[in-house]
Queue: 4 jobs
Job 1
Amino acid sequence: MYVRGIRGATTVEQNEEQQILSATIELLHAIVDANKFEPEDISCVWITVTEELTATFPARAIRQMSGWEMVPLMCALEIPVQNSLKNCIRLMVQVNTEKKQHEVQHIYLNGARALRPDLAGS
């Protein structure tokens, strides 16, 4: 068994609570679907947002998902690098799995596809 980090990122159009919550759920579902794990397999989830996203904590969305109530979550502010992608939510899901590093599927949605075009797919 290994602990693997699974990366994911997405963007929202505006700093609005519902957009942030919906985008977070969409991203997490995409990561889970692509990598086939259950909440019980999760060590923890790190969540970062860019500095302009202040309407809510993205962790609120995950805490409301059935089965995810006990998964440790942590929100933080992304380093504000000049000319970096705005309105971005990033996840680092640390999962206990038998998958090898090259078998893990990282997920990049919406404007965040620009962060890792090599992993974002079509």
Job 2
Amino acid sequence: MHYILRQYWVNETDDKIKPYVILGGGPELFVTLMLLWLIFITKLGPNIMAERKQFVLRKTLMVYNLMLVVINAYFVCTAVKWLDYGFKPWFDRLPARNQWSDKAVAEIPDKIIYFYTKLIDLFDTIFFVLRKKSNQITFLHVYHHFITPVLAYMALKLCPQTIILKGVCFGNSIVHTVMYSYYLLSAFGPWIQPYLWWKRYITRIQLLQFVIYGVTILIAIYYGLHTDYPIALQWLATWQPFIFFYMFYRFYVNSYNKEKVQ
């Protein structure tokens, strides 16, 4: 158990990733952060807020959402460079652990920062708790915000050169740039709501994103490229686009279609 829970992660972490906080060494700090987040949003936070007045946080949310718009727009541009402006092959073999190009080494700091931004995204749910917006804390929301940093953590520790990380960063950052732009505008108040008719298209973009990821994974499986990856990451990552597509599709139908899913 000690090997599975700690030593495996220490041994398999790429040497170039080990100096970074949270990602170096064992998973204890990362697991602790994620568990504390889960405990706060599901039990501790709602109990604390039960007899308290909700926080408004309007200015805080505007600053937070503006920051994430800028961050995600930056990573759209950065991921385009990682992907050689669309010319990088998507179905190459995963490079061996000791085969690092100068370009790949130069990409590491931005990849680490991208991982940290997935932890910043966890504040979405914390703000929902503080504003007593429990209807927003759905299983889809919690699952999505939990599994994304988990996958990023595993990918950076075990295979930081993977093209999958670059592709996901590109697609996810596009979606988040649009999504946090919507959140930023909606924080201005009721007067702007008539201009935010495009909310449903955010979910459509997300669905398209998962279709692309799913097709990419199926092609990789067909050519046997998935076997380059650690077995735990293979099983966890392979199913996510299909799980997410199903959950987001259900959300879209229940939110925007007149005929609800039975």
Job 3
Amino acid sequence: MTQKLEATAELKHASADKFYGFFKNNMNDLINVFPASFKIVQLLEGEEGSFGCVKLWNYVIEGIPMIVKAKVEAIDDDKRSLTFVAMDGDIMQMYKSFKAILNVNHGFAN
């Protein structure tokens, strides 16, 4: 069975390009923005912001420390879209596969 969750948020303090650029090139800074939730975001393979790069995430959900090893499966700069696929970690105990897609649209912020 395939499950899908979608969420939409309006950007009030950043342009769509800056928001997309943060998630493409500076996701390691999540540990500074959300220190209670993200402990480590470490580049393991490849180049930051490039197709095929692999990162290790140490994060906390409801007080429980977790890890995930994820790969950038697709990048579409024209559509401001990033696709991440979990390769290993705690999330793989709950799901056979896990994919996250970030789409940033100009509809909310310019």
Job 4
Amino acid sequence: MEGGRNMVSLALVHWIYVVMVVVILVVMVLRRDTLIPCILGIFLMGMAAQKGVAGATGAIFDSFVVAGVELLGIIFVISVIVSMSRLLEDLGANQLMVKPFTKLIKTPDQAFWFIGIVMFVVSWFFWPSPATALVGAVLLPVALKVGLPAIGAAMAINLFGHGLALSSDFVIQGAPTLAANAARVEVTELIVKGIPLFGVMGFVTIVTAYILLKRDMKRGIITAEKIVTGEVIKEKEVTKNTKIAAVLVPLAFTLDIIAMFVLNLRGGDATALIGGTAVLILAILCLLEFRNKMLEEFTKYIKSGFVFGMEIFGPIIPIAAFFYMGDMGTFVEVMGSEALPLNSQGILADLGGALASIAPMNKPTAAAMQMTIGSLTGLDGSGFSGVPLVGALARLFGTAVNGSIARLAALGQIGAIWVGGGTIVPWGLIPAAAICKVLPMDLARRNFIPVITGLIVTTIVAMFLI
């Protein structure tokens, strides 16, 4: 890199940012919460910016506000979708929507792939947590009946849902929004450029898992006969409103997908369409089901969804607030420009220029570091808490090697979500293990080799693409 960017000398705020990133990584590896280190980092940067104790303290809150505004849209859309899905569950419409497909499952192989594909599609629109309960409750008894071991069903639910669907997240765009905001690239650019990486990771991991499962079933290491099927979930009464909901929801979201292509809706516009559709469906179904109690019931479901949304993203906002400080616009908005050297392009851009001038950085090294750090951040079992970090590092590494920042962000996102979102960290995959009545450690062991294989192959592919 040439010109003024290489000439920018690093100031105290740059070094505080670097040191706190290292501290946050260490805390993540130790599987401890990172909010306090992130808040401390913001405060110390405020002091370095000569804002004084009062100003640095106020900068903490200001940074939360800036990060909250950035994330508000995705928090809202996830909240309203959860609100809608909970009403669908109460109506029994979720089971009715999936039940017709159970007639297509005749063999263990069909059960594995069918459960996985259904889980993948449902997770894209409703997120993996509610999708796990839906798919597990309806399809697990069918899978067990045709001879698929419960651990195989758990793997399909887990790898397709908390792995492939959550890491790509093309519809709700939670993970891509976090990564893109921190990397300061468009969400659409990250998704489009990340498609080859998402595809390679999903294909390699799931096919490897399937081959190993089939091998162990053939050897008798895993047998369906030894699996206790447990209780069959009692189906809810099918009413007229249940049938209406079961038709209305897939129809409405199918029309949304068509509208996205026809109207060329991307990023925030596409998210808004999905969120608005969920709200309208919730209102219509509340009217049909509760009639004169519709106003109160609608409020109850909306409240429930937003409680879930804040529970998920409440801890993410302080983390995002710190890593967003690496961007010039956010830093200036919170701290002012006085603490940065003349000609600074922002903390991350400056660090990238410095790294390129003093270290033998290249694209393979950048890809390997991005995947390694992304995977390490996932060890806390969240996945999402590390996404702002890998987004910020994508900008740093991409600047240093003159590579694709968006593709590096997607790579780090894959590492963080596949590891921490709930595929190989035992404390992160409890929902799938619980619904299939298998031990979380057993599921983690079955997933370990496939996921690690996928991460390695995806990193190698990324070395040639960034």
